[in-house]
Structure formats: C-alpha cells, structure tokens
Design brief:
This protein has about 210 residues and is an alpha/beta fold. It is built from three helices and 13 strands.
C-alpha cells in the first residue's frame, strides 16, 4: 500500500518541475516566428502556423436514404430482376418468369383427387437442402438419401398451420406429369435442384387450375 503523504509530496515535486521547464526551457514552436514570446488573442494564429478549422461533412440524418442513388438512375431503362413462379395444374407444369418474361418451365406431378393442390397466390416460405421426411400417419423418419420421398430439395409455399405444401424432388420420377401427390408439387431431382437455385424466400407463387 502507498501512503497518502508520500503521494502528496511527489505531486508537489512534479508540479515544481513542470513550472521550471516552462519558465526556462526553449520557446514553443508557435513562438519561433513571433516578435513577442507572449501569446494573446490579438496575435494568436497570425503566424505561418495559423490553424484553419476543417468543416465537417454534411451527412443525411440517420435513416434518411433520400440521397442514395436509385437503381433506375444507376441502370437507366432496367429494373431489378423479379422472379415469379406460375403453376398450371391442368398442364402439369411450373413456369419461371423474370420481370414477366418466361425463362423456363419444368414438368410436375400435382395433387390427386381428394388431395388437390390449392389454387391461389402464395409465396415461398421455406427452403431446405436434403430434407428429412416424416410419414404423416406412422411418424416414420426417412433421412436424406435416394429413397427419401422429398428428394434433394424442399421449397414450401403453403400451410394451414399444421400441414405444408411445396415443391420437392422424388425417387419416383416416372410419376412426374401425373396427379399422384397429397397436394405437393413433385419434380424430377435435377429440376428441383435447378429451381431451388433460382428462387428465394418471398418469391411469389401463383397456382392456377
């Protein structure tokens, strides 16, 4: 432990040393070219070392994005790519559009009688690689592999809060093009891999009769 009276004496010695240095040391840099060693409000900043303040840049308020350049100005005549999927159940195909231009389409299997694929407007809400499948009645678990009923990818776009409907691969590719599923859109594994790489969460999905 360091005693308080020792600290007080040390502080006094340091203070005296500081006074001695400022009283008898060399003149500071700002006084080298001045006619007087005294500094006052009248001569401060009049030498060649005059300090000039640099103005701060004017920044937009936090959250104000009005000064950012819009996409349309950066790329005139172009619009951001917008992907949209359209399922036509009667044609057994899904069509992929970008900015309302057809890019490609794939054959699909759809829901069978009593388990029809619901029609309407939806959006992609789930995406999963190598999904695990659980049998809806027996609870049997099937892990990723060649016999998994969901194939290599899952893209969900509909739910009632308990069950889900979406695109997925299948080990029975010969059934693609038929109405054989429990509402889901089955695809060949090579096609579901291609589709998976072209959509994101939130991609619109329209299901037409």
């Amino acid at each position: 432990m360091v005693r308080g009276d020792f600290l007080s004496k040390r502080f006094i010695l340091l203070s005296l040393s500081t006074v001695f240095l400022f009283s008898y040391g060399s003149k500071p840099a700002w006084a080298e070219n001045s006619s007087s060693t005294e500094v006052s409000a009248s001569n401060l900043g009049t030498s060649e070392f005059e300090w000039v303040p640099i103005p701060e840049p004017e920044l937009p308020p936090l959250g104000d994005y009005s000064k950012f350049i819009p996409f349309e100005q950066l790329y005139p005549g172009q619009t951001p790519l917008q992907t949209h999927l359209v399922i036509r159940l009667s044609e057994r195909r899904v069509y992929l559009y970008r900015n309302d231009r057809l890019q490609t389409s794939y054959p699909i299997a759809v829901g069978k009688a009593g388990w029809e694929t619901p029609t309407g407007s939806f959006e992609v809400m789930q995406m999963q690689r190598d999904p695990i499948w659980e049998h809806p009645w027996t609870g049997e678990i099937v892990y990723p592999g060649p016999n998994n009923p969901l194939g290599a990818r899952w893209i969900g776009f509909w739910t009632d809060g308990r069950d889900f409907i979406g695109f997925h691969g299948t080990p029975n590719e010969e059934l693609v093009g038929q109405a054989v599923s429990h509402g889901c859109i089955r695809m060949r594994n090579q096609d579901i891999l291609a589709l998976y790489s072209q959509v994101d969460i939130g991609t619109p999905v329209t299901v037409e009769p």
